[in-house]
């Protein structure tokens, strides 16, 4: 095969002299990312360091890469989707493969799910949206409440400021309710419910969340289609519903897809006291101290607060969460399989 790269003992020795053994080993492993590599065993004159480096390469060179299983059918939001059709199978396979091998991103998303899904799912249900749509939030932000995109979309549901205001969220220099999980979830539910009413299926509603209702409506009409699965769209929008379906597939049975997490490694739900604010707070750091916490904690658990003061106009009310000290102790709040939002997350 052309373009093979040979790692010899001379190469290792030169690298060792420049970087030392501790830095050599990760570099040796990194070299494995080349398309094709051949390995020369150390010569009889090889140093101990060179032999150790070769052992690391030899041990990591042939780690198995497993293709994740693609389900034939997925039940999502009360509808059974069949992936026997080749193009649908391949689209789902792509998203499962990418999600399974984006280890750190998917791992953090799973851990955060135990904290945020119990908040999000009941709000969706209350607003007439199937709970499976929680997985759309997973794709939007990996459940990072402080997520902010290059396109200036913010929060777990990644609203643009204009869309957020359209759906009743306050966005200004002091308050940005795109970061308020409860209010943003209710707004997302209204958007999705409105989209479902337009299209009659959740795959098109999900595609519209990424590509916009105007675009999906136009393309369904012009391409004479009933489902976004049958549309030729920008690649990101084409992939979007399949990413949501892949998230559900993995998150319902993570160990099947190689994610083995102990119960106590998930993030515990937080407990708060809630202060109702009806008057302007000129100094939030001082207000935080007066209420037994810090400004940093206020911002961490109320990311919708955007400044060191909070102007409150007549008739306006805000609710500020203050984490209970007992809730901030990990050792005082151990998680077990039975206490997880979904016990199936643990073997």
Structural class: mainly alpha
CATH names the topology of the largest domain as Lysozyme
The total strand number stands at: 6
Q: Enumerate the strands of the largest sheet in spatial order, edge to edge or round the barrel.
A: 1-2
Largest sheet: 2 strands, parallel
Strand and helix order: EHHEHEEHHHHHHHHEHHE
Task: Give me the Rg, rounded.
Answer: 25 Å
Distance between the termini: 42 Å
Poorly predicted runs of 5 or more residues:
1-39
Any idea how many domains? 3
Overall 3D shape: globular
Q: What would CATH call the class of the largest domain?
A: Mainly Alpha
Quickly count the helices: 13
Summarize the structure.
The chain is mainly alpha-helical. Helix content is 46%, strand content 7%.
Topology (SSEs and partners):
Layout: E1 5-7, H1 9-19, H2 21-30, E2 37-39, H3 48-60, E3 73-76, E4 79-82, H4 86-100, H5 103-126, H6 134-141, H7 161-166, H8 181-199, H9 202-211, H10 213-222, H11 235-252, E5 272-277, H12 284-290, H13 295-301, E6 318-323
Parallel strand pairs: 1-2
Antiparallel strand pairs: 3-4, 5-6
Question: Your description of this structure?
Answer:
There is one protein chain. The protein is mainly α. It has 3 domains: about 5-60, no CATH class; about 75-265, Lysozyme (Orthogonal Bundle), CATH 1.10.530.10; about 270-330. About 45% of the residues lie in helices and about 5% in strands. The chain has helices spanning about 10-20, 20-30, 50-60, 85-100, 105-125, 135-140, 160-165, 180-200, 200-210, 215-220, 235-250, 285-290, 295-300; strands at about 5, 35-40, 75, 80, 270-275, 320-325. Strands 1-2 form a two-stranded parallel sheet. It has a two-stranded antiparallel ribbon with strand order 3-4. Helix 1 (about 10-20) crosses helix 2. The longest helix has 24 residues, at about 105-125. Residues about 1-40 have low confidence and may be disordered.
């Amino acid at each position: 095969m052309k373009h093979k790269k040979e790692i010899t003992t001379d190469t290792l020795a030169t690298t060792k002299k420049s970087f030392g053994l501790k830095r050599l080993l990760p570099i040796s492993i990194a070299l494995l990312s080349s398309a094709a590599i051949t390995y020369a065993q150390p010569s009889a004159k090889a140093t101990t360091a060179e032999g150790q480096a070769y052992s690391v390469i030899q041990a990591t060179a042939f780690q198995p890469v497993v293709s994740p299983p693609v389900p034939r059918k997925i039940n999502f939001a009360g509808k059974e989707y069949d992936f026997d059709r080749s193009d649908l199978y391949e689209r789902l396979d792509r998203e499962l493969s990418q999600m399974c091998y984006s280890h750190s991103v998917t791992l953090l998303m799973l851990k955060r799910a135990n904290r945020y899904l119990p908040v999000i799912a009941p709000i969706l249900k209350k607003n007439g949206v199937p709970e499976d749509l929680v997985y759309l939030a997973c794709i939007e932000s990996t459940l990072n409440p402080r997520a902010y995109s290059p396109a200036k979309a913010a929060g777990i549901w990644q609203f643009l400021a204009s869309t957020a205001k359209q759906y009743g969220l306050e966005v200004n220099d002091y308050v940005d309710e795109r970061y308020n999980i409860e209010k943003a979830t209710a707004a997302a539910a209204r958007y999705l419910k409105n989209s479902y009413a337009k299209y009659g299926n959740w795959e098109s509603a999900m595609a519209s969340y990424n590509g916009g209702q105007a675009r999906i409506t136009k393309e369904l009409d012009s391409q004479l289609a009933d489902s976004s699965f049958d549309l030729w769209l920008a690649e990101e929008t084409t992939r979007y519903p399949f990413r949501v379906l892949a998230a559900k597939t993995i998150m319902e049975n993570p160990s099947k897809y190689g994610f083995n997490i102990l119960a106590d490694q998930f993030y515990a739900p937080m407990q708060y006291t809630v202060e109702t604010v009806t008057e302007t707070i000129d100094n939030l750091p001082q207000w935080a101290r007066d209420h037994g916490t810090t400004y940093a904690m206020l911002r961490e658990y109320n990311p919708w607060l955007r400044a060191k003061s909070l102007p409150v106009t007549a008739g306006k009310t805000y609710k500020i969460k203050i984490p209970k000290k007992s809730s901030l102790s990990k050792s005082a709040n151990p998680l077990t399989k039975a206490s997880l939002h979904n016990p199936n997350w643990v073997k």
